[in-house]
Amino acid sequence: VKAIDIADSKGHIIKIFDGFRPPLAQELLWSIFPDERYVSPPSRGSIHTRGVAVDLTLVDKSTGLEVDMGTPFDDFTQLSNHLSTDISIDAQNNRKILLDIMNQAGLESYVEEWWHYQIPNALNYPMIKENYDVM
């Protein structure tokens, strides 16, 4: 809720792409893209299978459009790195705005994915092993 309020004060809405990810969904992602920089192996589980991560972006309140982040969500390339300078200055600034909002709200970023945030000490939480229907 804190991040939502901070984003609102800066003229943005938070759009959530992904939160909790059941183990079956993690297995599917791994089968499609087995690269540990972007997808954790199912045997280890991910921060998402612990229920303590969220993938999101910002929407401009005045236009209702997602702001330019330089890549789409789940773009598993080097351009998705928070620190990439191979994207437009506007996209770099938008990533910084998102990072500032989420850090002020007490969440940590994952450097390889501009959209991924998690609570501190996320690996200290157990994996949720139940599989739920996913949309």
Automatic annotation (TrEMBL):
Keywords: Cell wall biogenesis/degradation, Dipeptidase, Hydrolase, Metal-binding, Metalloprotease, Protease, Zinc
UniProt cross-references to SUPFAM superfamilies, sorted A to Z: Hedgehog/DD-peptidase
Molecular function as annotated in GO: dipeptidase activity; metal ion binding; metallopeptidase activity
One Pfam family it belongs to: Peptidase_M15
InterPro entries linked: A_A_dipeptidase, Zn_M74/Hedgehog-like
UniProt key word Metal-binding: yes
Keyword check for Hydrolase: yes
Gene3D superfamilies, per database record: 3.30.1380.10
Designated name of the protein: D-alanyl-D-alanine dipeptidase
